[in-house]
Structures are given as C-alpha cells and as structure tokens.
Protein: Superoxide dismutase copper/zinc binding domain-containing protein
Organism: Coprinopsis marcescibilis
Amino acid sequence: MTIFSALCLFAFTSFAAIALAAPIRIETRGIHTTTPHRPIRRAGVFLRSFKGSELVPSAGEAVIYFYQYRENSPVIVKGEIIGTGLAPNSQHGWHIHEFGDLFNGCASVGPHYNPEGQHHGAPWDHQKHAGDLGNLNIDMYGDLYIEPKVINDRVSLNGPNSIIGRALVIHLGADDLGKGGKPDSLTSGASGERLACGIIGVLPDYD
C-alpha cells in the first residue's frame, strides 16, 4: 500500500467514525408540525345527584348537549331529563357554575359562572351572568325534553369565556331571575339547594 492510499484510508475511517458518533440532524424548515386550530362545536354533560361527596344512584337519565357551529355563533342547547324523580309540574333553576370540581359533589362547583361581574338575571336580560339559564319546566310525568334553542347569548364553547370544564347545576327551587327581592336573588336567583350537577366536556365533532 502506498503512502497516499494509507492517508486516504485513514481520512475515510476517521470521517466515518465522526459521522457515526455525531447526532443526526433533520432539517425541518418549511414544514408545519402543529395541528391547525379547530373550534369546539359540540359539548355535553351527564348530570348526577350527590349526597355530600357521595354519588346517589339513579335509574333516570339527565343529559344536556351544547352546539356551537361557528366559533362566534350563539350556543344551541338541547337535552332530556327522564325518570330522575323530579316532582311533576315543578320548576327548577339551572345554571352554569364556575368550577368543574365535584370533589365535594355539587357543593364544590363554586358560584354562577360570571366573567363579566354582573348581577344575576333572566337569560334574556341585559344584566345577567353568562351562566344564567333560567328555569326548567318539568312536565306532568316528572320529565323534561329541551328542544334545540339558544338560551343565553353569552354562553360559548370557545374563547376566553368558554364553558368547557365548568359545571352545570340543577337546583331544588325555581329561579326568581333576580327579581324576587331576596338576599340571594341577585347572586343565585334564590333557587335553593343543588339537586344535580355534572362537568361540561367536549364531544367528538361528527360533521
């Protein structure tokens, strides 16, 4: 072997050793690896009753759905409450509450969701909470079917005031819509104890 050949062989093996030892670098300029933003279009909540922090078994079903077909459009609400033991022909206040925390049952979900710091009111009032939904009107059989409709135009599934991860609560009494003159009329509508609650979660977008 000539001196020239030996030098070439030494240079090649040295380069190979350095290449194998060096970390591999993959050029990714111009390639977008983040997932494009996609607005939330569907959410739902399964409501349960609690005694303290303990779940109360029930043969009934209470499911509420929320739909927002465009990021800034009003939220449509629909659902049904069947066989849960609610009194026939009764009224019950229902609201979105601030926290999705069921550690102590419905007692730990906090106050009404109210990012704008307003008084409690009816869903159609200008002065109202973003979580104010008014009253549920139970039928003669103790059930309720909510046809799709917009209830509160401040409810949103998207943006900084999203209701995702917050709690929906049904109360024992009727909501006086902030007009009853009671000490808690302007905070909770004097709607009484919390009967059932659940955390609002994102549902798959099937469309």
User: Anything to note?
Assistant: The CA atoms of residues 94 and 183 lie 19 Å apart. The chain is about 10% helix and 30% strand. Residues 3-21 form the longest helix (19 residues). Confidence is low (pLDDT under 50) at residues 3-28.
